[in-house]
Amino acid sequence: MGNLTPIGGATAPAGLTRRHKAAIIVRLLLTEGADLPLTDLPEEMQADLTRLMGTMRHVDRDTLTGVIEEFAEELDRLGLTFPRGVADALSALDGRISPHTAARLRKEAGVRQTGDPWERLRAMEAKALLPLLEEESMEVAAVMLSKLDTAKAAALLGMLPGTRARRITYAVSQTTGITPEAVDRIGLSLATQIDQQPGRVFEKGPVERVGAILNQSTAATRDEVLGGLEEEDADFADQVRKAIFTFLNIPSRIAPRDVPKVVRGVDQMALVTAIAAAQDNAEAEKSAEFILANMSARMADQLREEAKEMGKVKPRDAEEAMNNVVSVIREMEGAGEILLLADEEEEEG
């Protein structure tokens, strides 16, 4: 064992270097079933440890006990350790500092994300991976598709144009001879592209953000803004219209079975006001009748009576009451309590 001194077939503790002692501790921990994150070590250190363990044979019990006791003493003296370098510090703080701050520090330090790049890619949503699949060569796209779980790979294929999807699928059959090193390089390259993408400032896209703002706007403001958007960008305006949900959309977007849930969540005075105000607008009246038709007859009669007694509703009060109903529906959708139907969907059964 190199410069170690044998004693009666055993190894003398005095002849052990720190590297040999480390190898003994690693071997002991692995034998006991410990899951050591050796991949976190520098590659050269991993290689040295592997080569060293390959040259060692037997260690007697006294030597093992001495190494363990020395190791335990060092652990007792050790108070606290910090990560080595910005890359390790960022890994240790992952999820505890904002993504924007992490990305800025990573860029300033010139370091990339650590860990298995394929694990990172597999954890990403299909929509975030789609640009990579669209822009990379067929061979790289085929490797990427092969490394993802089948459900996500199938979802991505469904997002691609038919011709490209077929070509990538065929390219998968040509990946049999690819080496592990090549797969690693491809993973690192794709992960680097992800690292270089600018961080998202907004959680939602522009269509969702504009739609959410117009949802809470008055009808007059909403119509005026949409009219202006039509002149500037008709496609964007069309997408925003689809993202908007108002009191008038209730019959086409709410499942009848979900109406009782909505009614329980809305303040009764706001609901009565919205129903009373709807009598002056044919489209709004359809929404009010849809709500009343999908609750108990007794409650519907009670709400109709209260709305009748309320009489004429001021436009401002009507807008506020209808927005109140819409806000409750949006909150319930966000919480997963109800699911809004697409405009073209019809409720079945």
Task: Note down, in words, how this protein is organized.
The chain has 349 residues and is mainly alpha-helical. It has four domains: 6-77, no CATH class; 84-111, no CATH class; 115-196, Orthogonal Bundle (Annexin V, domain 1); 245-334, Annexin V, domain 1. 66% of the residues lie in helices and 1% in strands. The protein contains 20 helices and two strands. It has helices at residues 18-31, 43-55, 61-77, 85-92, 99-109, 117-123, 126-135, 138-147, 150-159, 162-172, 180-196, 206-215, 219-232, 234-243, 250-253, 259-265, 268-278, 282-293, 297-310, 315-334, and strands at 6-7, 10-11. The chain has a two-stranded antiparallel ribbon with strand order 1-2. Strand 1 and strand 2 form a beta hairpin. The radius of gyration is 32 Å and the shape is elongated. The N and C termini lie far apart (78 Å). The model is unreliable at 1-12 and 344-349 (pLDDT under 50).
Q: Helix fraction?
A: 55-70%
What name does CATH use for the topology of the largest domain?
Answer: Annexin V, domain 1
Shape: elongated
CATH superfamily of the largest domain: Flagellar motor switch protein FliG, alpha-alpha superhelical domain
Radius of gyration: 32 Å
Order of helices and strands: EEHHHHHHHHHHHHHHHHHHHH
Mean pLDDT: 82
In total, the number of domains comes to: 4
The unreliable regions are 1-12, 344-349
Total helix count?
20
Examine the secondary-structure arrangement and name the CATH architecture of the largest domain: Orthogonal Bundle
How much beta, percentage-wise?
Answer: under 5%
